[in-house]
Write a structure and sequence with these properties.
7 strands, alpha/beta, binds S-adenosylmethionine, 7 helices, 38% helix, 232 residues, Rossmann fold
């Protein structure tokens, strides 16, 4: 399967899922979600993964002054909760239909910028090296291509400030193989592969949690540029 075909497949499949029942495919915990339940579920994710980790995430900055990036925002579940904590949130998703529904759910959140992207890069975002934090959950576990994920990691590296954190979740259960056209069961990463990906993309994989499990969390810190050596 060609790379472009894989990107098209992700967009088409996720558009279809979004048309069928976006909130269910975003969080399969319930078939029907009220706005309030969906909002609470996003707040719960942020409480667990963000508010417990503010030292790594904020690094002394006031969250209200921070600009954060979310990859794979779906119908805006986590995006809304992020926008309640941080000053500015930029969120991308490969599915135009997810972005449309997120737009409705977040219409009262003026600090959120939603963009459909092509499923592998962040060219839709025109600002360079200005993000203070990047986050992604239950997205990469659905991507059937390691190449796509590595490209995202490189793109996040391009957009983050030096030293900033990209905290994200990948599939850590390596006991199965994904198929190139399967946009539900994505590629998995061993601990060694996670470290290797960080190194090859200019990050330090300083913390990892959940290797071998579905929720394998990675803390990638953008390595500071090497100080210029004044000695000839
Ligand atoms: C299970 S949902 C999770 C949404 C959101 N992260 C949350 O936790 O509520 C997965 C989302 O990832 C998006 N997605 C899948 N593949 C993607 C890709 N290659 N690039 C960007 N978004 C992608 C889907 O469109 C979908 O909205």
């Amino acid at each position: 399967m060609k790379f472009e075909e894989q990107l098209d497949k992700m967009r088409l499949d996720w558009d279809e899922r979004a048309r069928q029942n976006a909130r269910f495919f975003v969080n399969t915990g319930r078939e029907q979600w009220t706005d309030e339940e969906f909002r609470e579920s996003g707040r719960h994710t942020v409480e667990e993964e963000i508010l417990t980790d503010m030292i790594n995430i904020c690094q002394g900055k006031d969250p209200k002054q921070m600009k954060v990036l979310e990859i794979g925002c779906g119908a805006g579940r986590v995006t809304r909760a992020l926008s309640e904590v941080f000053g500015e949130v930029w969120a991308v998703d490969v599915s135009g239909e997810m972005i449309r529904q997120a737009g409705e759910f977040l219409r009262d959140r003026p600090n959120v910028h939603l963009l459909q992207n092509n499923g592998t890069d962040l060219r839709a975002i025109t600002e360079n090296e200005s993000f203070d934090f990047a986050f992604s959950t239950i997205v990469f576990q659905h991507i059937p291509s390691r190449d796509v994920i590595v490209r995202y990691v490189r793109e996040v590296h391009r957009l983050l400030r030096s030293g900033a954190l990209f905290k994200f979740q990948v599939q850590g259960d390596t006991s199965f193989e994904t198929k190139p056209d399967d946009t539900w069961l994505g590629v998995s990463f061993s601990d060694a592969q996670a470290v290797e990906m960080a190194e090859s993309c200019g990050f330090e994989a300083r913390h990892r949690h959940g290797a071998g499990q579905q929720y394998f969390w990675l803390w990638y810190f953008k390595k500071p540029r090497r100080a210029m050596n004044s000695v000839a």
